[in-house]
Amino acid sequence: MSEFDYDLFTIGAGSGGVRASRVAASHGAKVAVAEEFRVGGTCVIRGCVPKKMLVYGAHFAEDLEDAQQFGWELGECQFNWKKLRDNVLADVDRLNGLYRQTLENNAVEIINERAVLTGPHEITLSSGRTVTARHILIAVGAHPHVPQCPGHEHGITSNEAFHLDAIPKRMLIAGAGYIANEFAGIFHQFGSKVTLINRSDQLLRGYDESLRDRLLQISLMKGIEFRFNADFRGIEKNDDGSLRVSMTNHDDIDVDCVLFATGRLPNTRGLGLETAGVEVDARGAVKVDRFSKTNIDHIYAVGDVTDRVQLTPVAIREGQAFADTVFGNKPTSVSYDCIPSAVFSHPPLASVGMTEGEARDKLGTIKVYQSDFRPMKNVVAGRNERGLYKMICEGENERVVGLHMIGPDAAEIMQGAAIAVKAGLTKADFDATVAIHPTMAEELVLMK
């Protein structure tokens, strides 16, 4: 008989925790996972999956308008927010069931309770039951940061955005990262008057400057307003239920909804990490080594709670690597080099590798190729939005070290192109590939 109740106890059933638990169980471990909310985590329940469904819904606003230029004679169109909202939430329920089924099919015990660490190998559940585990995995994710200004309780976060009763006529979105820009595009297409405010004067820090400028230009053209260098002074509720927002460097503004999209913080508060001796950084993120191990040999952490790269596919890879390392006798670490990413804004942008600025700082002499074009569909539709593809190359052999694009389907195109960048292919390798014509993607092999 084992001296522990479980070989692995996972706290949190998000993307990383589910993958780690399932794979550990497939390696023969006795596994339990505790989840106080729903199985699937931020991505499936209140993040990228339902948000992408809203993005799809929002695209129809322009598609229906453009369809008329392609010969389709349409009657009056009306948008039913509640129908889309309920259909999206129903699919979230379906996915939650599939995630639970995956764990159960792999003999992972699901415990629907909050769990905290109360000893080196001890976990206490909200019911008061105490269990022990040889290994403990912390995979509790992160939560939205809310600025602590007077009246902040009147605002919402991305968590609540999926459950609104109606589309606000006027919406203020705080932040300039991917969540802020994605929801700005979504609610603008649904008919909201959207104003985005940010503490700095930049959008999407970390993305190539050319893409950031192009998105700002297109967003302004669509009618989204921006207020930069703006800090909250306060939010007050007006007599009619609307909100008056005051901020630095700008006039007050009356809106119907304030959405905070100002970053995410690790969910480590009240988890008992100090009891187990687990070290965290100043933001509350769990400190780990390249194998996701904390300073305590038998306690590990994966996903957003470590604040390494807050992306679902990264959490999944970390969970897989942890399980293979600890239970599969196959030491594995995750490479964080050349991770592709996308922002599902309107239009979307995608990126992999170094930006032009990063490449100049790190590599010195580089060569930049780009294609600035108007997608064929936009020409017929009479839409003036232009796409931009950019390739960053180093050295005499012109190895591609960065690829950046903004335009329709950028994320879908980038996935395949990211393989080439990760593999270290050169500009000549792209040039030697025959184009698929007529496509936007062919610009990748035609850049001059």
Explain this structure.
With 448 residues, the protein is α/β, with parallel strands linked by helices. The protein folds into three domains: 6-143 and 265-327, FAD/NAD(P)-binding domain (3-Layer(bba) Sandwich); 152-262, 3-Layer(bba) Sandwich (FAD/NAD(P)-binding domain); 347-445, FAD/NAD-linked reductase, C-terminal dimerisation domain (Enolase-like, domain 1), CATH 3.30.390.30. The protein has 13 helices and 22 strands. The strands form five sheets. Strands 1, 2, 3, 4, 5, 6 and 17 form a seven-stranded mixed beta sheet that branches. α1 (15-26) packs parallel to α9 and α3 (48-67) packs across α6. The radius of gyration is 24 Å and the shape is globular. The model has no long low-confidence stretch (mean pLDDT 96).
Low-confidence stretches: none
For the record, the count of structural domains works out to 3
CATH superfamily of the largest domain: FAD/NAD(P)-binding domain
Query: Strand tally, please?
Result: 22
Q: How large is the share of residues in beta strands?
A: 15-25%
How many strands, which pairing sense, and closed or not: the largest β-sheet? 7 strands, mixed
CATH topology of the largest domain: FAD/NAD(P)-binding domain
Distance between the termini: 68 Å
Mean pLDDT: 96
